[in-house]
Each structure stands twice: as structure tokens, then as C-alpha cells.
Amino acid sequence: MSRDVIFQKLRQDPFAQFLGIELLDMRDGYAKTALTVQENMLNAHGTPHGGVVFSLADAAFAAASNSHGQVAVALDVDIHFVTAASLGTRLYAEATEEHLGHRIALYRLAVTTEDGTLIALCHGTVYRKEQSLV
Amino acid sequence: MSRDVIFQKLRQDPFAQFLGIELLDMRDGYAKTALTVQENMLNAHGTPHGGVVFSLADAAFAAASNSHGQVAVALDVDIHFVTAASLGTRLYAEATEEHLGHRIALYRLAVTTEDGTLIALCHGTVYRKEQSLV
Amino acid sequence: MSRDVIFQKLRQDPFAQFLGIELLDMRDGYAKTALTVQENMLNAHGTPHGGVVFSLADAAFAAASNSHGQVAVALDVDIHFVTAASLGTRLYAEATEEHLGHRIALYRLAVTTEDGTLIALCHGTVYRKEQSLV
Amino acid sequence: MSRDVIFQKLRQDPFAQFLGIELLDMRDGYAKTALTVQENMLNAHGTPHGGVVFSLADAAFAAASNSHGQVAVALDVDIHFVTAASLGTRLYAEATEEHLGHRIALYRLAVTTEDGTLIALCHGTVYRKEQSLV
HEC states along A98-129? Predict the structure, then answer.
């Protein structure tokens, strides 16, 4: 199964598309996503909603963990909110593989701004199913 | 400051409104939110996106932790995905206070279906600022 | 395989014995452990070391997750430290099953004092192997 | 306050000493600890107890987060168990600072063997008090 087919499938994630999350890059065990913070993505304090930051990280996590072509489903993610970004900021999430086991794999997810300011940091665990992605 | 004023402010969270998340209830240290899973909330596997489930839990978390009228900002959340919900399902999130300290407070966030099936389970920590919410 | 055999096996956990952790109770998906904080269990600040509190919770987690007689190995645990206990205090940890899946199970672990003060709160995930415990 | 004074204080952590955890290195926002797995550190499955691995990571975390000379107390730690080590193995934990805020700081804790095999991976958050360590 080609990398392109997997990439196309993951790019068409409906919720990521709905939020305007772009899948910029995907390699074995790695993915990068981006999003620009819009007005409708703020919370009651006027900063980007935790759900937006999480969704961006989760999209990179899904792409990196499914990049091997085997279906990977998220078991858990812990997210640490470090700095509040502001309206209009372009945010990036990078998912890197910390461990790839037969059934379980672990990823580091870092959300940053263009200039490298850390916005949020996560670890995410997936369960890898027998079936292939496409 | 009245409970109603806080409730109205939290209900107007732009991202929660954008996703159709309803704030059903809010009391001191407690909140309940709901959302119906739409087509644009699915992921590449056809199940509700992790970001949607997280956002619903996070909206309850924000309301419960800000319910005392003092600004509370999320430090971290760990989410455990238990069961995949399906399209059209109505999901509920309840946030309950496990600990309320001077600066730090801890909440349990449970996402369930109408019939009580556990979809996701979280703990979330906030830092409570000096300033009041409104 | 009888409950007694499992209980005896889990009670003989060498590290739990080394620390003086007692396995007080074990039922399907539940366990309770206890420990009294000794001088050699303090940290540099003079309060119980995070590793001691974690170990007590982890012992309850191991017993509850292996209580079904199928080998369960910990994937991850998140621990939230709520209140610092003091020297000589008797601490209890209770592990309760939040979800029991075919391969994955999720537990809540609460560490408290005799009078119910919450010391630490965790969620822990296990991977359940094919093999049985004894 | 000199680095040496802080280092000496953290080295004398009673529980770390009790387990034979050595504080190998400490610099601003960084620390490294080590421990050799003994028979009394195993669990019922015959592998190093989760509490031992956690304690080693926690000792590095405490040293790194208190390295600035300001008292830092742990709020939460999430630990992901990646590979089971074996009896007699020498384990190392390195804590590196991911973010240092005025009140909150975040650390990555990695437990590895001599040859670099990843045993466990954590993120830990501290609350930084006004008072200084010594």
C-alpha cells in the first residue's frame, strides 16, 4: 500500500477538514499538521479553546500512528497546556514516534507557533489493530 | 457575582457554540455539557474524532472549574478513550470536582451516551488565578 | 483458578512486601492496599515521596487488574498529587474498574488517609494478555 | 545559594537513598539518576515494579525541578511503561525541562537502560512556591 494512498485518506479526515487543519507532512512514525486560530476557535477567556489545540495535536497523532498502514486507534492522550496562543496565530503540531510495539505505540505531540514557542505538549498511546488502513 | 452571569459568560464560549456544544447545567464545582455527533465530527476511521470528544469534556471542565467565579485556566488533561460512539449519537460530559485548592483544582470528566455507556474518561487540573471571571 | 490463589500470588509481590504494602482486599476489578509512612519514605521536603504514594496506588492497580486471573500489564498511569501526607500516617489505595475491555482495561486509583482526605488520584490503563496469571 | 548546597540536599532524599537511587548529575532544569534493579524491586510478574521505575523517574524530576533553588512540588506525572527491564539491569532516568514558568514548570522524564532502550516515558508538572529550597 503506497504512502500516498494513506496520506490521502488521512487528509480527508472530516473533522480536521471542518476545523481547517492541514496535514503538511507524513512519514513513517511522523506527521505535521497546521491551523490558523479563528474567532470561532476561542474560549470564554478569549484564548484558543483547549479543544482546538488538542484537535490539532490529535490530527498529527492520528496521521503519525496510522502512517505504517495498520489501523491505530487512540487509547489515551495527556495534554499539558503551556502557553496561550492568540487569535490569528498559525499553530503547528508535530507527532514523533517514541516507541513502536507490536500492539502498542507511543507518540510525543508538540504544538508550537511559527517561531517555536511551545503551546502544548502531549504523549499519546495507540492500540494497533490487525487490519490495514486502506 | 451571580451564578447566572457566570453561566451566561461560559455558555457564550465561541468554540463550544461553533461545535454545537450545549452547557446544560452548572453548579459550584460541577457542569454538564452535551453534543450530537454530526458527519463533520468524524475522523478517518468514521468514528467521532478524538478532538470532538475532548472538546465536549473540556467545555464541562471549563464550566465546572470557573463556576466559583474565579478565573481557572487548564494546566493539563489526560483523556482515556474507552468506547467509540457513532454518528448521530448524543454525548454528555459531566465534570465533577475531585479537589479544590487555593491555586490548584482537580476534576473528573466523564463522557457518556444517553444510556450511560462510558465513551471517555479524563482528569483535568486547573490553575486558579486571583482575578474574578466577570 | 481460585480467587485465593490469585490473592496469594499478588500478596507476594516482592517490592510491595519490601515497602510494607499490605493487600487488604481483592475482588473482581477491585483491590485495596495500605501502608504506613515511615521515615525512609520521605523526600527532601520531608513529605512522603511521590514514589511511595505511586507504589501504593500501583499495588492496588496491579491487584485489581489481575483479579480476573488473566495477566494484565500496566501501559500507563497518570497520578495527581493532591495533599501531602505526613510521617506516620496510614495511607490506603483503592483501585476500581472503570472499563474492562477484551485487551484494554481502565482503573481509577484513589489514595486517601483513614479519615478520607484525598492524597492522590490516578487513572491507570492495562493491556490484558492471553495467558492466565497462575 | 550554591548549586552544591542544593545538590547535597537533594542527594539526601531519604526514600531515594533507601532504594539505592543515585543522583548522578544536576544542572539548571536537568537531572540524571540511576538505580540497579534488585530482587526486592520486582513485582508479581517478576519484572521491575512500576513503583520502582516511577521512583527513579520521580527522583530525577524532583532534582531537575528544584535545581533552580526555588521549592517545586509535583502536581502530576503521567508515566508510560514501554519495555520491561530485568533483574540486575542498571536503569537511568533523565529529567529535562520542557517549560519553566513563574508558577508552573513541565519536565520530560525518560527511563532507559545503559544501551538506550526506552523503559518508561513521563511528563511531570510542578508548582513552584515562593520559598527557596535551603
Answer: EEECCCEEEEEEEEEECCCCEEEEEEEEEEEE
- Chains B, C: CB contacts within 8 A come to 35
Mean pLDDT of chain B: 95
D123–A78 C-beta distance less than 8 A: yes
Q: What is the pLDDT of residue D6?
A: 87
Query: C-alpha grid cell for residue A66?
Result: 496510522
Contact call for D123 and A80, based on CB within 8 A? yes
Residue of C nearest to B78 (CA): C78
Instruction: State the Cα–Cα distance between residues B45 and B37, nearest whole angstrom.
Output: 14
Taking a C-beta distance cutoff of 8 angstroms, is the pair D72, D31 a contact?
A: no
Closest CA in chain A for residue D100: A82
The chain A residue lying nearest D76, using CA atoms, is A80
pLDDT above 90: residue D9: no
Q: Do D50 and C42 touch (CB under 8 A)?
A: no
Check which CATH number belongs to the domain holding C45 and give it.
Answer: 3.10.129.10
Mean pLDDT confidence for D8-27 = 94
Contact B27, B94 (CB under 8 A): no
- Residue in C125, D119, D121 with CA at minimum distance from that of residue A96: D121
Residue A45 has pLDDT above 90, yes or no: no
| Residue contact D75–B104, C-beta within 8 A | yes
> Which pLDDT tens digit goes with each residue over C25-83?
999 999 999 999 999 999 988 999 999 999 999 999 999 999 999 999 999 999 999 99
Total structural domains within chain C: 1
List the single range of A125-134, B84-93, D78-87 with lowest mean pLDDT: A125-134
Query: Mutate which of A71, A76, A123 to test chain C, going by most C C-beta atoms within 10 A?
Result: A76
- Pairwise CA distance, residues C77 & A96, whole Å: 21
Neighbours of chain A (3+ CB pairs under 8 A): B, C, D
What distance in Å separates residue B115's CA from the closest CA in chain A?
Answer: 22
Give the closest of A101, A118, A123 to D78, CB-based: A123
**The three grid cell numbers given for residue A1, joined into one nine-digit string:** 500500500
Q: Which residue in chain C has the smallest CA separation from A106?
A: C75
Residues 6+ apart with CB under 8 A from D115: none
Q: In this predicted model, what pLDDT tens digit does every residue of C97-117 receive, in sequence order?
A: 999 999 999 999 999 999 999
B75·D78 Cβ contact <8 A: no
Average pLDDT, chain D: 95
Whether residues C76 and A125 touch (CB distance < 8 A) is answered with: yes
Tell me if D42 sits within 8 A of C17, measured CB to CB.
Answer: no
Chain C residues interacting with chain D (CB cutoff of 8 angstroms): 9-10, 12-19, 39-45, 49-52, 54-56, 58-59, 61-62, 66, 71, 73-81, 84
- Please choose, from the candidates C11, C8, C114, C113, the residue with its C-alpha nearest in 3D space to the C-alpha of residue C60: C11
The amino acid at D104 = I
Question: Which range marks the domain in which residue A35 is found?
Answer: 3-132
